[in-house]
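Table S2 (text version). Query chain:
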Amino acid sequence: MKPKTLKRGFFKRVFGIPATGTPINDRCWSVKDGKIEIDFSLAPELSRSGGALRLEGGGLADRVLVLKGDDGRFHAFKNRCRHMGRRLDPVPGTETVQCCSIGMSTYDYRGEPVYGPVKGPLEIYDVIEKKDGLVVLI
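Corresponding structure-token output:
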């Protein structure tokens, strides 16, 4: 059964343009010693369920997607679909993330495939929630 999909234009899917943006404030995160630290006061994107950050560059070896799930928990993934290597986006109301390409490969929050031409599970990262932010173990 085809899951709910993120409403996006055909050309955005063809060109693999993700719906999730980079942080509004690029000072909200830093990476050091295999950890990403995110400051909630500078990352309003993570204040609501379905909110997400696309982290790239800044000393990261791989792109990372961090989201506040519909389950109320924070999740982090290597932001690379196992089908075509495109970026991922959360799909509100579904507890899934989906590739930004035409194939719409879809994964649950555990990184397990649930739909599409996927080639295995996503790499997920452990997340430690602190009072004022998150630590993502990469």
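Notes on Table S2: The mean pLDDT is 93. Helices lie at 10-14.
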